[in-house]
Amino acid sequence: MTYRPAETVFGPPFAVRIPSLVYLAVALVVGGVVVAGELSAPGSALHHYVVEKDINRLVSSRALAIVLMASALASVLRASMRGVRIRGDGIEFRDVISIVMPRIKRYKWAQIDCIRLDQPTIAVDLWDGTRAFLPKVNDLPALSAALEKVAHARAIPVRGGRGLDELPESGDFEEEQS
């Protein structure tokens, strides 16, 4: 019987999510201005700009706010779908390579020859001689530890890493004096 790790997901770092969160904040502000303009008094400048000038516009301000909110929510969801997932049968990682196309790669444990933890980004050497680089995640030390544990249990070589024993360094032990 082979070792099957529990499914673990490592999401993208917060810095990757910032642009989509800023876009969502702008969409919320625009939506708030539209709602405030529709609820404001009929003689106010905001009501005049949002409601009365809508007759001459190609797209109404309400439709613009709805489309902007929907696309901002889609952007936040898309940004949060990046990351690495350790599964029982292998490893899966997702990244966004262009505006439209996501990249999903799945590798079985049997396809992995070596896990490289000694580089700035974690890399996986495959049986066909290629190397796959995993995307950046929010908790890189935990991902390294999880991959090292799986590699040890499945006899996959690891380059770099901390080791699996949790013993303190020899200098941390205090000598007993009687």
Brief description of this entry?
37% of the residues lie in helices and 20% in strands. The chain has 178 residues and is an alpha+beta fold. The strands form two sheets. The chain has a four-stranded antiparallel beta sheet with strand order 1-2-3-4, with helices on both faces. A four-stranded mixed beta sheet has the order 7-6-5-8.
Descriptive account of the structure:
It contains four helices and eight strands; from the N terminus they run E-H-H-H-E-E-E-E-E-E-H-E. The protein has 178 residues and is an alpha+beta fold. It has two domains: 8-12 and 84-159, PH-domain like (Roll); 14-80. Strands 1-2-3-4 form a four-stranded antiparallel beta sheet, sandwiched between helices. A four-stranded mixed beta sheet has the order 7-6-5-8. A hairpin with a 4-residue loop joins strand 6 and strand 7 (131-133). The radius of gyration is 26 Å and the shape is rod-shaped. It starts with 7 loop residues before the first strand and ends in a 19-residue tail after the last strand.
Descriptive key words:
alpha+beta; four-stranded mixed beta sheet; about 20% strand; four-stranded antiparallel beta sheet; about 180 residues; PH-domain like; 2 domains; rod-shaped
In quaternary terms, these chains amount to single chain
The gyration radius over C-alpha positions equals 26 Å
Strand content: 15-25%
CATH topology label of the largest domain? PH-domain like
Number of strands: 8
Secondary structure category: alpha+beta
Q: Please tell me the total number of domains.
A: 2
The CATH first-level class of the largest domain comes to Mainly Beta
Alpha carbon gap, first and last residue: 50 Å
